[in-house]
Specification:
- The complex is a heterodimer of chains A (584) and B (260).
- Chain A has 16 helices and 22 strands.
- With 584 residues, chain A is of the alpha/beta class.
- Chain A is globular.
- Chain A starts with a strand and ends in a 13-residue tail after the last strand.
- The mean pLDDT of chain A is 97.
- Chain B is α+β, with helices and mostly antiparallel strands.
- Chain B has 2 domains: 106 residues, Roll (Ubiquitin-like (UB roll)); 127 residues, Fumarate Reductase Iron-sulfur Protein, Chain B, domain 2 (Orthogonal Bundle), CATH 1.10.1060.
- Helices cover 27% and strands 14% of the residues of chain B.
- Chain B contains 8 helices and 7 strands.
- Chain B has a 5-stranded mixed sheet, with helices on one face. Chain B has a two-stranded antiparallel ribbon with strand order 6-7.
- The radius of gyration of chain B is 21 Å and the shape is elongated.
- Classes of the chains: A alpha/beta (584), B alpha+beta (260).
- Chains A and B meet through helix 3, helix 4, helix 10 and helix 13 of A and helix 1, helix 2 and helix 3 of B.
- Chain B: Keywords: 2Fe-2S, 3Fe-4S, 4Fe-4S, Iron, Iron-sulfur, Metal-binding, Oxidoreductase, Tricarboxylic acid cycle.
- Chain B: Its EC number is 1.3.5.1.
- Chain B: GO terms for molecular function: 2 iron, 2 sulfur cluster binding; 3 iron, 4 sulfur cluster binding; 4 iron, 4 sulfur cluster binding; electron transfer activity; metal ion binding; succinate dehydrogenase (quinone) activity.
Amino acid sequence: MQFHKYDVVIIGAGGAGMRAAIESGQRARTAVLTKLYPTRSHTGAAQGGMCAALANVEEDNWEWHTFDTIKGGDYLVDQDAAEIMAKEAIDAVLDLEKMGLPFNRTPEGKIDQRRFGGHTRNHGEAAVRRACYAADRTGHMILQTLYQNCVKHGIEFFNEFYVLDICLTETENGPVCTGAVAYELATGEIHVFQAKSVVFATGGFGKVFKTTSNAHTLTGDGMGIVFRKGLPLEDMEFYQFHPTGLAGLGILLTEGARGEGAILRNASGERFMERYAPTIKDLAPRDIVARSMALEVLEGRGAGPNKDYVLLDCTHLGAEVLETKLPDITEFARTYLAVDPVVEPVPVYPTAHYAMGGIPTNIHGEVLRDNDNVVPGLYAAGECACVSVHGANRLGTNSLLDINVFGRRAGIAAAEYALSRESHVDLPENPAASVEAQVALALSEHGQERVADIRTELQATMDANASVYRTEDTLKTALHDVQALKERYAHISVQDKGKRFNTDLLEAVELGFLLELAEVLVHGALARKESRGGHAREDYPNRDDTNFMRHSMFYKQGDGLSADIRMDYKPVTFTRYKPMERKY
Amino acid sequence: MTATAETTAGSRGSQPPVPDGAVTVTVKIRRFNPEIDDEPRWDSFDIPALPSDRVLNLLHHIKWYVDGTLTFRRSCAHGICGSDAMRINGVNRLACKVLLKDLLEKGDKHTTITIEPIKGLPVHKDLLVDMEPFFEAFRAVKPYLVTYGNEPTRERIQSAADRERFDDTTKCILCACCTTSCPVYWTEGSYFGPAAIVNAHRFIFDSRDEGAEERLDILNDIDGVWRCRTTFNCTDACPRGIQVTKAIQEVKRALLFKRV
């Protein structure tokens, strides 16, 4: 075992982690731990843009952006947090530009802006050009720019260090975070990082689903670690399905395509979104578009030999717009489906994309241990966190915004907290014990179950039973399946017993997190007997503000994979917007 | 599966159902695990695969159902994260961007796909190499915007034409396909390599940047741009379609004529 001591430890090196590191690293001694290399993080796969009311191309203001975010989230958004995000969005974009991000430009040389789903002028009048972008590689540019600036500031990275636990030290005022425990992939060695503050920025858990835009590595490790510590997760039933994944593959095609004018059509060529969202049509928020697509297919109007997808028509945009503003998605369609968007429509279907829920935090990124108290020294930001700025459904571009605004806030808060503490709080006894036991157990012989089989079955049941539309019956099936898979997980066999880059072991550990998070998702979806944002219950088709205008909170009861889940609720923060019916 | 005799790990049990339209291909992989091997060896696996499968799918099939010790990096699986650069049939490619249909032999001939780690970087295990020397070269060229004086209140103004000037090199995902395809890099590891020069280019030709001279000084070094022998391997290897050799030439010209 090796021991390290830092002021701040940041776990994850995507957008949120590196944005936090740039702030923290200039204030306090900071280490960034990532199970990948920083530039491999999935922020780089984001495409369309990052919204901010710069008003560079038409009238706009951050209050409209706040309203759109809250309405887009079906009023489950904490309004104080949404206001902060929309307000700070402007500086967040300008900061990135000053760091070197190569945004597309207007003819005057200012940052160009494009339309995006759910972002409107004057509270829903019409689509507004709010998304700042760099072709369809905005996430790539953000990830590269943040990494470049980490290099500039000499940020210290521990690459391919897989964090498996955090250290909580009990004090008279409750638990305090005192460090993190990591498994070094190169050597199999365990490292204990003592720290005054720890920031989680570990991203999402899209791999609970089969059809997903998420990377293989998005297995919810951060959320899973926090949950196993008995700390809550929030709003886990709200999972976003992005309307336009490449059919059958799930690879993302940006909403920016529709922002540039692309149109969704069913088998007969009808622009069906006119029926579902008469005002902003194809630029309705993602939950609405995804449900509309699923309905078209369910009602027999899908395209293709099996009528199981719809078509994204970009042909009228012309080769130049596609090659200059949407070059990557044009290439994806050509490479993976052998379809050329310049001349033919692209088969698309909703793909599991983004967790609205996660580790509950306040607006400073401090992690909550219940509705009222924080865990001193513990922070979270980005997709793994739930502030909540996305409520029941995130608007497109608001994730890139979230990681920059709240990554920055968490980095500053973590560093300032660390600087305000004279000395490190003692670590709990044997801080590495549970990780050592976990690794030893995974490597020991106790069964013949294959990780790939369990994962495949998990993904199949989640796709079939807990995706765009849900019912009591499908969710009960999913719950039953997930619980049975958890029992089988106790008998997995890891074939690689070595210490060096044991990715076989890594996948087994990741699967453990996926199973637990899938169960929490389904548990929450069963309990929420209403439809709101990304959570659509066929048996409860309406929003029920009387009973469910509140955040769900999930706590693990006891140890081990089969432990029970306790549910609680947390009030939504309102400032100036009253819930209204959500029409577009 | 018919892994060769020297395979250390056996089958992981029953195989998943073979999808309609699958063909059987042989995947021949250069293996090396310093924990147990004295020197690299070849393993062959016969597996069913669909023509629409990516090479990454084939590797996953082997790892998940045949030999869990097979080791490689991957993440996004669609050519954006740059994790899975490897030598596929002798050329550097991302395993997630090569489809089996483009590798299949014509007619009924059996297809064998050869996969090796990228060259020029120390092999840690199987297809997984030490990326540190690669990132060290990247970090050495000051790959970030250098400016002096006060920052403007709003964004810096940049014309669309000035933005276009360096567009090509902003696409780099640091996968190392270019650098590890370069014969000069194979023999002289001290050479910065194409990727580092691409990333220097991205800033040297950015109208907002004021660090061109510092970077050009670094690249004028004995291990800098002059090592390039214009073999175009790098341009052929780039999965993002970057004109790598052209970018290197533009940096050379900037050095020769002292202007950007």
